[in-house]
Amino acid sequence: MKLKGRLQGFLNWPLYMGVLVMIMTVTAYAFSIKAGLICTVPAVVYCGISLWFYFVKRPMIMRELLLFAVDHAQIQKQLLADLDVPYALLDEQGKILWINNAFGEIIRKDKSWHKKIADLFPDAGIQPISPLEEEMIYDVSYENRYYRLHLKNIYMTEDTSPEEEDGFKVGLIAAYLFDETEKIQFKQEIENQKLVAGLIYLDNYDEALESIEEVRRSLLIALIDRKINKYINSMGGIVKKIEKDKYFVIIKNQYMENLKSARFSLLEDVKTVNIGNDMAVTLSIGLGMGGGSYIQNYEYARTAIDMALGRGGDQAVVKDGETINYYGGKSQPQEKNTRVKARVKAHALRELIETREQVFIMGHKIGDVDSLGAGIGIYRACNELNKKAHIVLDDITSSVRPILERFINNPDYPEDLFIKGDKAIEQADDNSLLVVVDVNRTNFTECSPLLDIIPTIVVLDHHRQTRESITNAVLSYVEPYASSTCEMVAEVLQYIGDNVRIRQAEADAMYAGIVIDTNNFMNKTGVRTFEAAAFLRRNGADVTRVRKMFRDSMQDYKAKAEAVRHAEVFEEAFAISICPGDNIESPTIIGAQAANELLDIVGIKASVVLTEFQDKIYLSARSIDEVNVQIIMEKLGGGGHMSVAGAQLTDCTMEQAVEKVKATIKQMLDEGEL
Questions:
Q1: Which residue, 343, 413, 518, 581, is the most exposed by fewest CB within 10 angstroms?
Q2: Feature table: binding site for Mn(2+)
Q3: How far apart, in Å, are the Cα atoms of 539 and each of 372, 383, 505, 507?
Q4: Are the CB atoms for 551 and 398 separated by under 8 Å?
């Protein structure tokens, strides 16, 4: 046994002192021989005793040190064994070599403790600790208790360190367990006791009352009140009726998971209330949670209910901090026969236009006939109010070219009526107005930088709102029940000024937008749709002329027929197909038309056509009334209407995109969302 370090130096001190004594003796001889002789005797005695102890007694001292070390190690081992903190030693592969009593009490010292630590806690995903890592921490559970597991490298010698590359070898790994069961339970209890603010609005209160005899109206209201109160009271919540068709509710956070798993059964439960009313009552629910205060939760609830109403009602929206989730929304939104809202929005838009020097009108990327027609309608409103207006248009597709040809090089319209996005960015300033039509999502707009440059923004759209909606709009007119944005703009034009005269080309463009979005008045067509079409017909829109503009070329028609021919029926109700995009100017338009064609097949409830264009895969989804394709497309990052929706996929092949669509539909069917 070799000694080193401080212990070796301590045992060598007598020798060092012997050398010092000899030096003192030699110095004494220099002064006096007699003094030197006197000093020599004790010096020799001291050195002899030191050498005797060093060579003769050294083995005895080593034995004493060894016995002390053994006793000390036993004490340390006993301390580790009795340590309250569960402790274990692992080898480099994570196999358990030794555990103390506390660790054994947790795992009850069954045979499993001889296995690897990863096998003992299989759900934690424990990986072997790297030699270059000092410590790794995992959250693990064992027999309904929760622990924090610390793994730490132990180096066998003082010279071993992670920085050494040659011959580096880890000795052992120490594992510590810290019981956090009570801490997690207390945190969960605190989370469960948090209050969730909510708002419940009846979507069609007035319409439902009008569809029933007057003597039964109070009974209908009472039954609805009872349904809502019973639903909230079953969770220990509070309901307060704040208006005839609005309720404020408060529930505990612990009931939210049950509400979500049941997909807010109140939505369907209220529809069962029928005492002779021709129209089923639907409601919208907005819940706010995850805020820093109760006031913030209430603001979240207001945002959520606005989202629910903006998406057509008959659904629940939960806003948890920055996360928004949607539930329900399976029924078609009820059309409002009153035009009061259109008149109010028209007057507000007129005031904004009159207070700005110039107006920029912008649709969505790869603009279609509806966005262009709506933009032209807003241009007419600006022209009537003597304001300069520009329509921002970058990509010109084959579907909009026939309309553009009637405006470009036309002496009745300025040359800068249509401008590119970069030019619009140069001309825009703080005194400009930006009108966004046919889109309410920031990243889908034709030129999104304009949203940051121009402070005054107006949004007119008929698509359901999503979490990515434009939030800084001064005026937002989003009506999901409208068939098209052109229908909404046609109504606005009737109230924005006295005797607004729409030219023939403009009427054709807006009429075409309605025709295309309604698939020749077959989808999402209501009373106000025909009224808007009649208004445009009175202003010169011609059905035959519009039909001629949108006839397909032979190549486009063959591509559409090819997509229909190769359609695959998935889950006996969904038609999925791929539209060939080779040598076609606007394959996305053809894909949308093919999706409409597939709905004419018996048994098909919804169709999805995929088209590859400009390194992206575009999805066009259509349905008649049984399936909400909007929520399918939202799962894939898109959106739209209940019967007309779309999405874009990137960084995947066409085969992967098809599988992704199938997996999404399958999952939603299994979870009862469709």
A1: 343
A2: 364, 368, 370, 438, 462, 517
A3: 18, 16, 10, 6
A4: no
Rounded average pLDDT over 640-664? 86
Q: Which residue has the higher pLDDT, 434 or 215?
A: 434
The annotation places the binding site at: 364, 368, 370, 438, 462, 517
Q: Which long-range contacts (CB under 8 A, 24 or more apart) does 645-650 make?
A: 645/621, 646/592, 646/618, 646/619, 646/620, 646/621, 647/618, 647/619, 647/621, 648/616, 648/617, 648/618, 648/619, 649/616, 649/617, 649/619, 650/615, 650/616, 650/617
pLDDT of the residue at 166:
47
How many residues in the chain?
674
Kindly report which listed range (29-33, 262-266, 485-489, 655-659) carries the lowest average pLDDT score. 29-33
Do residues 450 and 428 touch, judged by C-beta distance below 8 A?
A: yes
Q: What is the pTM of this model?
A: 0.58
Say how far apart CA 390 and CA 594 lie, in whole Å: 33
564-592 average pLDDT score:
85
Q: CA 442 → CA 308, 362, 448, 471, distances in Å?
A: 19, 12, 6, 9
Distance from C-alpha of 563 to C-alpha of 578, rounded to nearest angstrom: 6
Tokens for 56, please give them: 């003769």
Q: At what angle do helices 340-354 and 485-496 cross, to 10 degrees?
A: 70
Residue type, 201: Y
The pLDDT of 340-359, averaged and rounded, is 86
How would you label 387-406 residue by residue, b for 16+ Cβ within 10 Å and e otherwise?
bebbbbbbebbbbbebbbeb
Q: Given this model, what pLDDT does residue 334 score?
A: 54
User: 489 near 377, Cβ under 8 Å?
Assistant: yes
Cβ atoms of 136 and 90 within 8 Å: the answer is no
Mean pLDDT of 69-77: 67
Q: What angle do CA 166, 169, 175 make, to 5 degrees?
A: 150
Give percent above pLDDT 70 in the chain. Answer: 88
Q: How far apart are the first and last CA of the chain?
A: 78
